[in-house]
Write a structure and sequence with these properties.
The protein is built from eight helices and seven strands. The protein is of the alpha/beta class. α1 crosses α8 and α4 runs parallel beside α5.
């Protein structure tokens, strides 16, 4: 495996998309630094399962993505333990929906901090070790909302558009060092978090949950299927491999055709 013995730090990787990416990279022989919140026992179970199944080293940090000093400390541990970080996946993110004139300032700040500012802090901390190795893969999780907007998601739209701008800039700066930087832009993704939000969404639109998926979540999808976590994880693995060595500064949609219109 071409990625065997490389190391990755993945923010927001204790559940959902990030967790799927972590398992997919571990299956390629990549050592992993997990990050996120959740039940400590479940996270430890996840960490041990990856080590046992794939024979890799898996670390865990509960660094808060709103706190630069905690982000830097997590990155320092990963570099020290792994001898550098080869793959960085900036995946942490949160959502809040509200009209702009009612949008809570604390929610705005948290979304920008977690979904955009944290990317800057991990990049600043980890790019030096990638430069030293002359190889690196950076994947930033944006969204279709990094390319097109939806109402009532001002902070999320702003953060995800910002992620794409950051991605392009970093790609231009780091190309000469053998480092690529790309953004992935999923449409509606079938995650545990989505399922938790579904009853409220159905109630809001006075629909059944099945109708809400079809008529709300998948309304803009040409292919009427939600994106699976494994679809996204497979794309990340591809972007880390040699076949993608000349793909950089790109925003890759995986959205069932959402942004084709």
């Amino acid at each position: 495996m071409e990625l065997k013995n490389k190391s990755a730090l993945i923010t927001g990787s204790t559940s959902g998309i990030g967790q799927g990416i972590a398992f997919a990279l571990a299956a390629q022989g990549v050592n992993i630094m997990l990050n996120g919140f959740g039940d400590a026992e479940e996270i430890e179970k996840q960490r041990r399962a990856m080590e046992t199944e794939y024979g890799v080293t898996v670390l865990y940090s509960n660094a808060d993505m709103t706190k630069p000093e905690e982000i830097r400390a997590m990155c320092e541990v990963a570099v020290a333990e792994f001898g550098g970080v080869d793959i960085l996946v900036n995946n942490a993110g949160i959502q809040h929906v509200s009209p702009i004139d009612e949008f809570p300032e604390d929610k705005w700040n948290a979304i920008i901090d977690i979904s955009l500012n944290s990317n800057f802090h991990t990049l600043k901390a980890l790019v030096p070790s990638m430069k030293a190795k002359g190889w690196g893969r950076i994947i930033n999780t944006s969204s279709v909302h990094g390319l097109v907007a939806s109402p009532y998601k001002s902070a999320y739209n702003s953060a995800k558009h910002g992620v794409i701008g950051l991605t392009k800039t970093v790609a231009l700066e780091l190309g000469e060092f053998g480092i690529t930087c790309n953004a992935i832009c999923p449409g509606s993704v079938n995650t545990p978090l989505m399922h938790k939000q579904l009853p409220g969404l159905a109630k809001t639109y006075n629909m059944t949950e099945e109708e809400a998926i079809k008529n709300v979540l998948l309304k803009a999808h040409a292919i009427k299927q939600q994106v699976s976590i494994s679809d996204i994880a497979d794309l990340v693995v591809f972007l880390c491999g040699d076949s993608a060595k000349l793909i950089t500064g790109s925003s890759l949609t995986i959205d069932g055709g959402w942004t084709a219109q």
